[in-house]
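Researcher: Re-running this chain for the archive, since the previous output was lost when a drive failed. Same request as before.
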Amino acid sequence: QHSKPITALYAAKKQKKKASGGGGGFGGSKAKSTPPSVTPASADIQSLEKQWDNFASITDLEIFPPGDPESSDYRHFIVADVFVRIGPEDKDSNPGTGWFRTGKLVAADDIDINIAFALQRGLILWTAAAMWPQLAAKGQLAAAKLMQVGFMPPSMNMADESEPALDDEESEDVQIPQRVAIKDDVSLKNIGFRPDFNPKGFTYKRRERSAMKAKKSGLDEIMDI
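Model: Regenerated structure tokens:
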């Protein structure tokens, strides 16, 4: 039923061991090149609000595009479950932590999911460090240099503050985003990210509350017919 989005998301599964998703700090980008006209999402509260709003607006809180692809109002998008961990300090050492479920990311229209990760990587790492104390145990700067972003196909699963890291078996399914070139016509408005829960001291779900009200209103209309 959902083979197309999952196939697109997993197009480079055989290359996941070779890809690198860590290093560079919160502001780092793992894209091969970022055109001067394209600015990655910044790692701060304002940027998180914008990208969270984008996620809700693009997906309407769905994990797969609803509707008929042949319809004129259909909009294609791909959602991925996002994970973050402290990676190994070198090729001979073990990761510093397991993978922590952090949120969901979306790439709309024809944007490569890897580009969406590259442009929001700093924001994702900054958010994950605020969500999971385990990721900042070595100190924020040291942790940021070793942090890695990974992903799985979209699911309805969402973490809370008490959820442990993935076990070894579950971690085998986590993929690392590929390094890809970014086109100069990519807009942050067509990608989004939302955390599974609010980082400490942060409360924000404005666009999602509006979307839920709209869904309830639509259901009420159906029930009245």
